[in-house]
Structures are given as C-alpha cells and as structure tokens.
Amino acid sequence: MTKTAAIIGGGVIGGGWAARFLLNGWDVRVFDPDPQAERKIAEVLGNARGALPMLYDTALPEEGTLSFHGSIAEAVEGADWVQESVSERLDLKHKVLAEIQTANAGVLIGSSTSGFKPSELQEGAQDPSTIMVTHPFNPVYLLPLIELVPSEATAPEAIARASEMLTALGLYPLHVRKEIDAHIADRFLEAVWREALWLVKDGIATTEEIDNAIRYGFGIRWAQMGLFETYRVAGGEAGMRHFMAQFGPCLKWPWTKLMDVPEFTDELVDLIADQSDAQSGHLSIRELERKRDRNLIAMMRALRQQGNASGRLINDHQKTIRPAPVASEDGRALRSQRRMVPVDWTDVNGHMNEGRYGQIFSDAAEEVMAHVGADDAYVQAGNSYFTVETTVKYLAETHAGEMVEVWSRVTEGAGKKLRCLHEMRRASDGEILATCDQFMLHVSLETRRTCDPLPEVQARVEALAAAHKE
Q: What is the C-alpha separation between 438 and 419, in angstroms, rounded?
C-alpha cells in the first residue's frame, strides 16, 4: 500500500523532502501559500530526478503522485507522515502544528527546524507525543543524515516508527538523545562559520581560499571518516590517547575566536558577498546545485565501492528496493537491469565508457544467475559461473542521467554452459544501445575448475533456455 507524506512549507528544504519521499514511491501532498511554490518544487524535483537514482545500481521504486493543496488540513488528511518545513519562527510553527493535529490526530510530525528544541515545538500542543525534530541537510534528496531529536514528551513508539520510516527512505536517522539548541551538526557548522567570518574580516583569507582549505583537505577526510576516527588515525599506532596528549594543550592557545563574533556590519556583508560573487557568481544557483549534486554522487558512489559511511547506507538501502528480474510479455527474455547511468560512468567524449558496458552486462548476468538459483548463498557454498568470453557491440551513445534497461535471454543452457544475450535499451523509447553475447561456464570455487551445476540450478537454466528459444 502506498504511503502518503504531507509537506508543509515548500522551500528549498521542503522541496528536498518532497523529492526524497516522492522518488521512494510515496505520494506527496504539499501546502505552501507561496504562489511560486509549484515552480520552485518542480525545479528541485528536476534536479532530484537526475541525481538520486544515480546513487543506485537499480531503479528506485515507481514515483509517487505529487499534489498541491490550498490548506494545511487538506494536505495532511490521511497522511502517514507530516514534515513541517516553514520559516524559523516559533509562533508560526506552533500555529502550523496545531492545525496539523486538529486535522490529523495521531499522525507523526517531523520538524525541519535547525535551531528549536522539540520541547519548544511541543509547547501548547494537543498531543506532544507525536512531535519531534527531524532536521535534514541540503540537498535532502541526496544527503542521508537526519537529526532525529525527541523530547521527554515524545512517545518511544513514535520515535521507533519515525526511525523505521526514515531508514526505508535511504536516510540515516541519528537519534539525538538529549535535546540541545541547534542539535549536533549545526553546532559544528556554527563554529566553523564563526571562524571563517573572522578570517575574512581580518583579511587573512578570502572566501575562495577558505573553501579550498576545506575541500582540498580535511573536508574529504571528514566525508568518509568523521572527526574522532580521523584524529584516532592521526595519533598513529598509539591511537586517540596519544593524539589527545600531543594536541590537547593546544586547546589553551588563543587560536580561535569561537566565543567571539565579528560585528555583523554592512561592510562585512559587502566584503563577503563581493568575494563570493567573484568566486562563483558566473554560475546560476541551479548550475551550482547540479555541480554540487554530481560531486556528491561521485564521492558517495566511491564510498559505496568501499562499503563505508554514506556508501554503506546506500548499499543497505538498495537491498530493500532491488527488484527480481521481470519476464517480457512474450516470456522470451528477462529484464535483468533497470537503472540510471551515473555521472562517474562517462568518459572524455561525454558518453558511457567501454568498461561500464562490461559492468552493466556483468550485473545483468548476476541477476540471471540469482534467478536460476546461483545466488549469493550458492556462491558462498562453493559454486558459481565464470565468464570465459564476451562480445560487446556498441550501437548508440549512452549518456549520464539516462534510464536504461537490460533484457537478457538464455541462449544456451546445457551441462556446464550458460550463454546469455543481453540487450541494453533506453527505457524511454526502447532503442537498443548495446548488446553483449556472454558465455559462462559453471565452476567449483574449491578446485577453480569446471563442474556440473547442482541439479536444481541446472533445471532452472534448462527451463529458461527453452522459454527463451527463438
């Protein structure tokens, strides 16, 4: 049964939430009095549709239905989840939360607030037990962290349900056990932001130089290892204890100005704005968003290959959305792949490179293998199929962002032999982009030599070969 999310407030964050839900198969109902809300969310969705699917090696669920509504009550009717993303005004949030609970009593409500504590949001609420902070990071449709912050009044079962729903969206709900102003992550960001303002104001660094210090240095380390694990490595063989002993005394040195804030004058604003314009003013906001998204995709896909940090999260989520192969209408082929071509699969010519064709056809073969019973458990038990010959024909260009499908036929399935003919097609019009004739032999992983498949696998291979026979 399709779930429904209501998004109250359709700005940058609300639009990102709408995209995350929608692209994971939820129906989404939006309320925002801004007459430009539909246009703004459509633009965010356009970026999201071209970005989130690139993280995965399988297609996301069928997109849900997006609708816009004229009142909060209409938007939240029948919703399974309500995400409040209105402006950071406590009086406004109280008004919105009251309207939500009047219209849909008992619904889970997450607030995108970056600063308010959940106990502040719950003041005067009809039912504080279902209200919590679910603070995301922009872009919500790509970055997985959600700071899930309850108060003592939030029901434990509401926290558990919220965590389960967010995880099913491919998100990482970080349960903040004690509420605090600005939660966890924004407190770090505030510290770095204050120091950056001083460095610019005092003429020590420009906005671009500060950004370069982050993106060419510690920002990359933090992206895959965080803060404490990074410093544990910095401590060498002696670990964190050595690091603390070596650098702990530095905390008394007057390096930073975290407890002091530069006066926020017009001159400071002009200085930073002018430097920022010189740094990247030649790009529109939408161009910067696409640049950001594609950089994030490439980094997160690299982390997927290593099974670390956000990459591990994507791998886990993919297991829950990965569909079984689908038979064609005539039963003579299996759809073994349906996915978007990611940005890191292209070459200097701007199209998919030769090695990635090999990968997608290899992935297709693994789906065929799993379909006949030669799955992960079968391989772990000591049997598999090895590819001994492939012939790939490249028929048309394939570009990043295109949705493609691979249709596979078993053309030979006798004894140790398994031969597949794969056709990669553009999903939008069915054009054949490439083909692969792949010949495999069954092997024992213990002896690394060919052997007959187990009887149940052999029977399924023979049945597919008979069904796919021209």
A: 6
